[in-house]
Amino acid sequence: MTNPTLESFLKDVASHQLTVNLDQGVFRDITIKKPSSSDMHYNITTRPGFLIFTGDMGDFIFERTNDMFGFFRSQDDAYHINIGYWAEKIQAGEVSEFDPEIACESVKQYLVNFLDDMDLSDLEDQEKSKQALEAVSSFIGSNQHSGEFDFWEEINSWDADEAGGLELSDFWEAETTAKTYHFVWACYAIVHAIKLYDKFIAQEQSHDS
Questions:
Q1: CB count, 10 Å around CB of 159?
Q2: pLDDT (mean) for 67-85
Q3: pLDDT tens digits, residue range 121-161?
Q4: Strands, DSSP E only, in the chain?
Q5: Are residues 15 and 46 located together in one domain of the fold?
Q6: Measured in Å, how far apart are the chain's first and last C-alpha atoms?
Q7: Per-residue pLDDT tens for 184-200?
Q8: 87 shares a domain with 14
């Protein structure tokens, strides 16, 4: 599944509204949902050092700074997300999943590196290069849409001799995953929630002044 874009996310939450359940310093609990509907609703709870995201789009726990709203807050009207860095702050929740396209691209990169070391003016290297190309083409053709188990089964049965000497024995180090749809959505959702919260606080302060 293609990850959400900012445009698609904003369409998802176009009718969502903020409810502040608790607001005591860095102890907060807010809900963002459509009126009379739980579709794509989410709740954010913070305490010192933690932000807990729960709801219809997955559950995630982040740990970083005392005030996690400060950690995630965009300083302007844009929606700045850093999914790679933020994923490092996850204590619980499904962040990445196997992606056959990314995994197959990694196999292609092994082939590129292998061919770079070949002397294509040498007949033996020409034959090895041909065998490697054919082996990778066949592998990609049968695995570009396969599941994780089938993909790794093929990797583990890879025959380097039949592939002209192209080794995949250390392929476990290669990139084979992508961030999940729900995690990326949650990253946008956290930034969006903080924007709604900041607007709410500003309105409350203006009413009190």
A1: 9
A2: 90
A3: 888 888 989 999 999 999 898 877 778 999 999 899 999 99
A4: 17-24, 27-33, 42-47, 50-55, 60-63, 90-92, 96-98, 177-179
A5: yes
A6: 48
A7: 999 999 999 999 999 98
A8: yes
Domain count, the chain: 2
Give dist(CA 74, CA 81) in Å, integer: 8
Quick one: 138 and 156 in the same domain? Answer: yes
DSSP, res 171: G
**pLDDT category of residue 3 using cuts at 50, 70 and 90:** confident
The amino acid at residue 177 is T
Q: And the tokens for 158?
A: 């890879």
Place of tokens 């790679």: 84
Domain presence at residue 130: yes
Residue 28 in 3-state DSSP?
Answer: strand
Q: Answer yes or no: do 128 and 30 share one domain.
A: no
Among 33-37, 110-114, 202-206, the least confident range: 202-206
Residue 37's domain spans which residues?
A: 6-95+180-208
Q: Is residue 1 part of a domain?
A: no
**Is 13 a domain residue?**
yes
Please state whether the predicted TM-score (pTM) of the whole model is above 0.90. Answer: no
